[in-house]
Amino acid sequence: MTENLDLIYEVFGDLPRGSPGSRETTKKAYSMLKPVPSQPLILDVGCGPGMQTLELARISGGRITALDVYQPFLDRITQRAAGEGLAERVRTVNKSMLEMDFALESFDVIWAEGSIFIQGFEKGLKDWRKFLTKTGYFAVSDIAWLKENPPEEPLKFFTAEYPAMQMHEGNLKIISNLGYHLINSFVFPKSDWLNYYNPLEIKLTALRKKYLGNQEANNFLDLILKEITIYKKHSKYYGYIFYLIQNK
Hints:
The protein is an alpha/beta fold and 248 residues long. The protein has one domain (20-189, 235-246): Rossmann fold (3-Layer(aba) Sandwich), CATH 3.40.50. Helices cover 44% and strands 21% of the residues. Strands 3-2-1-4-5-7-6 form a 7-stranded mixed β-sheet, with helices on both faces. Strand 4, helix 5 (121-127) and strand 5 (132-145) form a beta-alpha-beta unit. Helix 2 crosses helix 3 (51-60) and helix 8 packs antiparallel against helix 9 (215-234). The radius of gyration is 18 Å and the shape is globular.
């Protein structure tokens, strides 16, 4: 993975989504959190472009704190929230998830859709607990192996790019060992991946022309394209899984 942040944001900065997902998947996950206060306080960690942020504001009736380190994402969320009449219920915070300093027990729900891998699945569930009310909820999604003994191609790729990636059962064990109650979990449908990958492929094609002859840039673009190709070939072996968890 390149260390050129400008290039990373150029690739991903104006995409509609920062990871696989859909409004339907966000709604499905939220519907599994019961009972939730009528006006919950929700922290959206690593919110990215904010598709799920706005959906949570629409369906929850609560107040959403959207946290990310990329200000253009936050500006886009603010603008869209204002356009939908949600400005009073959506606030943005430019801060790393590694440096959160919210008040203790200040959120009814901590939401991390496609972002907890940055902190680490186990570390995130452990470190963020202090911000959750005593009966509050985590709704986090992470990529995981769905079958044992995956082919060499995806195994080699994710060993290099996400060495902490677990079997689904391994994530369930982490949740149990931390003393949480698992409410439910489900695998994202393939259409959620296409929501993310289709616009990304179009962007890669355009950037190929711009960075013709730039080896560093093309190595990064090649890596992203390889990820897409591997998913299309081996999607039955891994996927994004939503974990709906209650503090106790």
